[in-house]
Amino acid sequence: MNETADSPRPDRADARLLIRLEDWDARLVAAARGVKILSRLTWPSEIQSQFLQGASRGNPRLPAVEYPDLDLSETRAELGRIVRACRADHPIAAYLRATAKSYRTACRLLECAGTARMTAHSAALYGSPGGSLSGGRVTNLDAARHFLRIDREFHRQSDYGEGEYCLTADWLKQTMEPQLAEVFGPGTVRVVIDPELASKAAAGATRIRLRSGTCFSEYDVDQLLQHEAFVHSLTAINGRRQSRFQSLGLGAPRTTQAQEGLATFAELITGSIDVLRLERVALRVIAIGQALDGADFIDVFRFFMSAGQSEIESFNSAMRVFRGAPLTGGSAFTKDVVYLHGLMEVHTFFRWAMIHQRLYLCRYFFAGRMAIDDVLALVPMFEAGVLDPPQLLPPWMTRSKGLAGYLAFSVFANRIHIDGLHQGHRFDSVKEMTEA
């Protein structure tokens, strides 16, 4: 958005405050460097082989997982100083304060790894299966059950004859790298094959990791490009390229829900998502709920097996649920709740922007890693030039007419109640359907 005469400009007091906030921003980036949740909670690869050997003999045993004792008190103290220093009534100060608080919670989670106490910190960062969507009565668990029900009906009724292929991580690497170069430039984002990775893929600002020994499908290629590369990597790069506030390049825990929601929305808007992907996401939410209700690691492993996953995938899925948590039940690492929750929230935000003729706000979402509330709160900072607009955008975001067309249809379609459609008869008038 171009700056106009009415655009807010920071006065001298604001300018002095911004200089101080830049210093605290740099300190936040430095403090956050040592707070790596997923890598700290990763299990050694030999645990998988040991467990699956026992499972194949009909005698699975709970894995023995140990986490390093961490004392992050100095990091927490520094984050506390940042929180206290950024109390000014200013959108950048609020962003830094909230981000520092989320990293402080992440520190406590890591210090409690392996104990039941970590669950409360996980829920504070990522939510829980019983959390409601957009403040309504529908919960994350309700959404997961809905998608599973739809998936099962689809498989029961469909006969489209789509072949299933087992594509290797090496093949994906060769396929993705030329497409990454088109958006980011040659060599900016590399594809690395990682045998220790818990998820099928993960992305940072400079590399996308793929788990070796895993079967990928043709859908996975587009999903990984749209989700990992053109959202996670892209927002990290744009955030790091901010001229004044590089903390927007951090993968702060408080931005995880919006990031995963935006990435899953990218799959949706590009037609890259499929029912199996939705099934995997939904199963994880239900499994987290089971673990919190007392299911142990073996119970959750068997749950994924009963859902049709292979032994290896079932182990990895169960591991995602129990990273950092006791394996005996009653606790869970709740991060995987954010995918469905975030998708619903981001989809709602895009529709809200369309209805209110503020679709340009959605571009700011890609200027760094932010929560949805940040996008709205930081608009004056973008318009004043304090924050830079995104240098890179995913291809689908540059086709604004196509995005607007999808959202215009989605906004209207949501007014039509499916229960108002009469099976076996002509549809009623649109007026009758919308009033049903």
Main attributes of the structure:
57% helix; 3% strand; 436 residues; three-stranded mixed β-sheet; disordered C terminus; 20 helices; disordered N terminus; mainly alpha
Structural class determined from secondary elements:
mainly alpha
Distance, first to last CA: 40 Å
- Report the average pLDDT across residues: 89
Q: Report the biggest beta sheet as strand number plus sense, adding barrel if it closes.
A: 3 strands, mixed
What is the total tally of β strands? 3
The radius of gyration over CA amounts to 23 Å
Number of helices: 20
Q: Which segments are poorly predicted (pLDDT under 50) over 5 or more consecutive residues?
A: 1-7, 425-436
Roughly what percent helix?
55-70%
- Gross morphology is globular
What is the H/E order? HHHHHHHHEEEHHHHHHHHHHHH
Q: Numbering strands along the chain, what is their spatial order in the largest sheet? A: 1-3-2
Strand content: under 5%
